[in-house]
Amino acid sequence: MVRIQTDMDAIETDIPNRSEALKEWILSQIEEKGPVPFSQFMEWCLYHPQYGYYRSGGSTIGKEGDYYTSSCVNPLFGGMVAKQLSQMADILDEEGKERFDIVEMGGGRGFLCKDILDRAKKKLPQFFRRLQYTLLETNPHFLKEQRERLRSYEEEGKVSWMNPEIFEKGEASFTGCILSNELVDAFPVHSVVLANGKLREFYVTQDHGQLREVMGEPSDPRLISYFDSMDIALQEGQRAEINLKALDWIENVERLLKKGFVLTIDYGYLAKELYAPPRRDGTLLCYFRHQTSTNPYERLGEQDITSHVNFTALIKQGEKVGLQLTGLVSQYRFLLALGILQEVEFLNRDASEFDALRTRLSLMHLIEPEVGMGEVFKVLIQHKGIEKPVLDGLRDLGKIPWPTPYSNHSVS
Description:
Layout: H1 17-33, E1 36-37, H2 38-47, H3 70-73, H4 75-92, E2 100-105, H5 111-123, H6 125-130, E3 131-136, H7 140-149, H8 151-155, E4 159-161, H9 164-169, E5 174-181, E6 190-195, E7 198-207, E8 210-216, H10 221-226, E9 239-242, H11 244-256, E10 257-269, H12 271-274, E11 285-288, E12 291-293, E13 304-306, E14 309-310, H13 311-321, E15 324-330, H14 331-337, H15 340-348, H16 353-367, E16 377-384, E17 400-401, E18 410-411
Parallel strand pairs: 2-3, 2-5, 3-4, 5-10, 10-14
Antiparallel strand pairs: 1-7, 6-7, 6-9, 7-8, 10-16, 11-12, 11-13, 15-16, 17-18
Helix pairs in contact: 4-5, 11-13, 15-16
């Protein structure tokens, strides 16, 4: 994390081309409007229509990009999600006659959608007949790639795209599941610190053409009550992020969902763990070519900026607006409960030694708690209009022995 600029030191930047153009634009905005909350700066860096990270033409996801998502690691991930969605559809309509809508928010390059549809078409034909998949994507480059990757399913009438304005205005409703994978962590966040016993917010200003941070009063009254609502007390000097956009988003999701489930996959923690004293510098991270940094003031528009998700906030805000908690589990427990190990065993039965090893390594990345995505990634499921649904992906597994190709220990 970039240190607090109490001595008004300038934050150094060395940014050519598009990054330099974005920096100059941000400096002009600060010159015109004065210091802006870090959340505004982060929004500009990520979503500026011309220079923002998520608006550029470069590939951000996958081997050639800056980071991986679970859907990029192995198609089995989407296959397991499809199994869970199929059970949700059965819960909503046991006779299997009613349409089941899947609305994916921020579908990235379209891998997860394709893997879900591929699995449903091959293994879950009754579910496939019922489902209708809608994507909501604001990145024009991802949108183009989605249409190319999913062309056959679009021609089949299984895939369509929703205008983001319809979501924002609450002009549609669906019965089924609202799905997102690594979406909430990319929302712009407010950066705050407890200084002299008071909550202060970080603003971004400029001095002689250099960006720097200054502290000021909270820009939104919701920031002041945020931690009290979750019984969190920051320590003196502790820095943290507050994702108010996530609260607005879950309200919009609730309006979009007539009946069914909300399935949110992302990395983060419950509030007590997220804001624990060991994380006194917060969780803001930047990703550039699979390298991490804590300095958001370099490579403007060329690096991803994220923070860990506060799942307590999503749960509490969801309950406030009408979404009940179905369950929250680590990603590895979700995948194991849905039978991913058995899937791998079946796939490797006729595979070459090289292909079998590759599958095992990618699986380890998805479910290994210590070094992979398995523990820090969580699966949050909420429901609306259903009485106490029981889902396979949320089963209490107890201690599960891991097959020897992965490790020699067991998982709780």
